């Protein structure tokens, strides 16, 4: 019908308008050669309900080399710039390495003048992804969705209210940093960052029963322990975050006993149905907790003492991801 037309190269405007789709993203993302050389960041959109401390957003930061993840919880998007500047200064001091590339999206929270001037002062190459192209910032974009999914699972399994999403997200990130990553050499992000294997001896199921020491008991015959729920890991040396069931306040303490198979916020019916799941979770090389020490069995004072070297190692292990919620 059209002898002078090359059908293979025929371009129809109407067809393009009606069938337009996203262009396939080809190739792989460049692999950094050193720690914090390339950092990916993304801000999760507003979350409802607010967390128990009034947070609405979380900022997720990923090291492209080690794949270690940090998470920060924000009340307003305007807080982003302060967390970014503080974090860049911190990781550069810790690793003795300069941040060369920073990959963000085109969100308004990343485009303020103060932040742009900071990048110029530090000599950081600020790269932005195109609109609707998460493939150009794969670690953070995909990571945000993964964090939300894991947090949702932790909340459902624990029976806790959705307002504890920040506690669940903080725990999800901590566990992710201790999980084997296929790229590049099937290592954990923690191992890649600190050049040693992480300690898994302090892990417990999120939302399980936690009895912590009451240092201010009324008299010698009062209960020495307070019933609570395990909410994750606190900052500092071997610390747990515990929800006091009586007051509703979150306590950070070292002296805790855990029942990994009892979830106070779940109904007994749901607990019976999921007993097999809990047993499997408890056997994942995690008989105790990952960032903090616990007193699951009576121990002497000498048993609890750590050498200065062991204490320093445990401090590094605990401070990887925990941030104020």
Automatic annotation (TrEMBL):
Residue span of region Disordered: 289-325
Reaction catalysis annotation: DNA(n) + a 2'-deoxyribonucleoside 5'-triphosphate = DNA(n+1) + diphosphate
UniProt signal peptide: none
Gene Ontology CC annotations of this record: nucleus
UniProt KW Transmembrane helix keyword: no
GO biological process: DNA integration; DNA recombination; transposition
Family matches, as InterPro entries: Integrase_cat-core (IPR001584), Retrotran_Ty1/copia-like (IPR039537), RNaseH-like_sf (IPR012337), RNaseH_sf (IPR036397), SH3_retrovirus (IPR057670)
A GO molecular function held by the record: RNA-directed DNA polymerase activity
Domain Integrase catalytic positions: 26-197
Keywords: DNA integration, DNA recombination, DNA-directed DNA polymerase, Endonuclease, Hydrolase, Magnesium, Metal-binding, Nuclease, Nucleotidyltransferase, RNA-binding, RNA-directed DNA polymerase, Transferase, Transposition
PROSITE patterns the UniProt entry points to: INTEGRASE
UniProt cross-references to SUPFAM superfamilies, sorted A to Z: Ribonuclease H-like
Keyword Lipid metabolism on entry: no
UniProt biased composition (Polar residues): 289-304
Alphabetical list of PANTHER family matching this protein: TRANSPOSASE, PUTATIVE-RELATED, TRANSPOSON TY4-P GAG-POL POLYPROTEIN
Record's protein name: Integrase catalytic domain-containing protein
Annotated source species: Austropuccinia psidii MF-1
């Amino acid at each position: 019908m059209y002898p002078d037309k090359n059908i293979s190269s025929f371009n129809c405007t109407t067809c393009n308008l009606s069938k337009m789709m996203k262009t396939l993203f080809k190739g792989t993302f460049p692999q950094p050669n050193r720690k914090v050389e390339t950092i990916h960041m993304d801000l999760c959109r507003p979350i409802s309900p607010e967390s128990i401390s009034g947070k609405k957003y979380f900022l997720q930061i990923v090291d492209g080399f080690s794949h270690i993840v940090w998470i920060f919880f924000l009340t307003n998007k305007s807080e982003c710039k302060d967390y970014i500047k503080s974090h860049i200064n911190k990781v550069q001091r810790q690793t003795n390495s300069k941040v060369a590339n920073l990959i963000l999206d085109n969100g308004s929270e990343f485009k303020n003048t103060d932040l742009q001037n900071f990048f110029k002062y530090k000599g950081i190459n600020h790269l932005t992804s195109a609109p609707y192209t998460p493939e150009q910032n794969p670690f953070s974009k995909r990571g945000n969705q993964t964090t939300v999914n894991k947090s949702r699972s932790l909340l459902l399994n624990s029976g806790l209210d959705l307002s504890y999403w920040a506690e669940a997200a903080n725990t999800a990130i901590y566990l992710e940093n201790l999980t084997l990553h296929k790229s590049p050499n099937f290592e954990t992000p923690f191992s890649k960052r600190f050049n040693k294997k992480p300690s898994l001896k302090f892990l417990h199921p999120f939302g399980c029963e936690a009895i912590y020491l009451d240092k201010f008991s009324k008299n010698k015959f009062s209960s020495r322990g307070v019933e609570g729920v395990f909410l994750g890991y606190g900052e500092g040396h071997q610390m747990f975050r515990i929800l006091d069931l009586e007051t509703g306040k979150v306590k950070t303490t070292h002296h805790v006993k855990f029942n990994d198979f009892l979830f106070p916020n779940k109904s007994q019916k749901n607990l019976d149905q999921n007993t097999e799941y809990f047993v499997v979770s408890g056997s994942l090389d995690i008989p105790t907790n990952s960032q903090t020490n616990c007193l699951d069995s009576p121990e002497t004072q000498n048993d609890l003492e750590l050498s200065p070297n062991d204490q320093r190692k445990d401090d590094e292990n605990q401070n990887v991801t925990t941030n104020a919620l």
